[in-house]
Amino acid sequence: MINLETYGWNNRLDQQKHKSIHKALFHGRIAIVHRTRYEVVSEGGVFQCELTGSLLFGKSTSELPCVGDWVIFQAFDDHNGIIVEMLSRERTLYRKKSGTVADRQAIASYVDKAFIVQSLDGNFNVRKVERFRVQICEAGIQPILVLNKADLSVDRKPVDEAIEHLVHQMPVYFTSIHQPQTIREIRASISRGETAIFVGSSGVGKSSLVNALCERTVLATSDISLSSGKGRHTSTRREMVLMDNSGILIDTPGVREFGLAIDDPDSLTKIMEFSDIAESCRFKDCEHVNEPGCAILEAVNNHTLDRKVYESYIKLRKEAWHFSASEHEKRKREKSFSKILEEVKQRKADL
Question: Is there a binding annotation on residue 137?
Answer without folding.
Answer: no
